Amino acid sequence: AQSVSQHNHHVILSEAASLELGCNYSYGGTVNLFWYVQYPGQHLQLLLKYFSGDPLVKGIKGFEAEFIKSKFSFNLRKPSVQWSDTAEYFCAVNAAGAGGTSYGKLTFGQGTILTVHP
Amino acid sequence: KAGVTQTPRYLIKTRGQQVTLSCSPISGHRSVSWYQQTPGQGLQFLFEYFSETQRNKGNFPGRFSGRQFSNSRSEMNVSTLELGDSALYLCASSPPGTDTQYFGPGTRLTVL
């Protein structure tokens, strides 16, 4: 079974600070990896995704993530955060092409609440 | 394209009742997944439907069920509601050939 661990429950930063949110997963096979964001009062939105190829992926709003296969990690980064980045961030994994019990199933981490002070 | 829509957005029920939630996927999407989001358990997968067939199911009791119609719209039903069923229920749809899921705004269910 897959599992996802997000190391930080709550991160507090000042505007212009750099951000890195950790995400580790456990699964022995090929994975698809995602970061979603949930702004206050809004629905889950896709920030970025990794399926294959370049392990450094860029998403919306200046976010990027790096897939390190040897560490089973997919950390989210942003060089300079803004107050508008205040939200909850979720890392998710799907077993790629495994069929069966992987159909349509994303396994989510517990989420990291990011608070950015102006 | 319109996004995933879910109705109703809010529901209040009492223990023992049953409830039906509806999800309309993005046009052209045939896979619909359902999730339960609670503060304690986070986001947990309920089930997934594709072409009117349930292909995958999470670890929830049989009180949780669903179906999908020929137009890809999906419903989920919870019977004999318990207090612990209070949650945000999210629906997501995926375009053909990809595992990327796009989420709706959710239905907030409160069980009293």
The ordered H/E elements of chain B are EEEEEEEEEEE
Count of discrete alpha- or pi-helical segments spanning 4 or more residues of chain B: 0
Strand-pairing-aware structural class of chain B = mainly beta
What is the overall number of helices of chain A? 0
Oligomer: heterodimer
Structural class category of chain A: mainly beta
Assign a percent range to the helix content of chain A: under 10%
Task: Identify low-pLDDT runs of chain B.
Answer: none
Average pLDDT taken over every residue of chain A: 93
What general form of chain A does the structure show?
Answer: globular
User: Would you tell me the overall average pLDDT of chain B?
Assistant: 96
Please characterize this protein's 3D structure:
- The complex is a heterodimer of chains A (118) and B (112).
- Chain A has 118 residues and is mostly beta strands.
- In chain A, the strands form 3 sheets. In chain A, strands 2, 5, 6, 10, 11 and 12 form a 6-stranded mixed beta sheet that branches. In chain A, strands 3-9-8-7 form a 4-stranded antiparallel beta sheet, with no helix packed on it.
- Chain B is mainly beta.
- Chain B has no helices and 11 strands.
- In chain B, strands 2, 4, 5, 6, 9, 10 and 11 form a 7-stranded mixed beta sheet that branches.
- In chain B, strand 9 and strand 10 form a beta hairpin.
- The interface between A and B is medium-sized, with 26 and 26 residues.
Keywords:
heterodimer; A: mainly beta; six-stranded mixed beta sheet; four-stranded antiparallel beta sheet; 0% helix; globular; B: 112 residues; mainly beta; seven-stranded mixed beta sheet
Write a compact overview of the structure shown:
The complex is a heterodimer of chains A (118) and B (112). Chain A is mainly beta and 118 residues long.
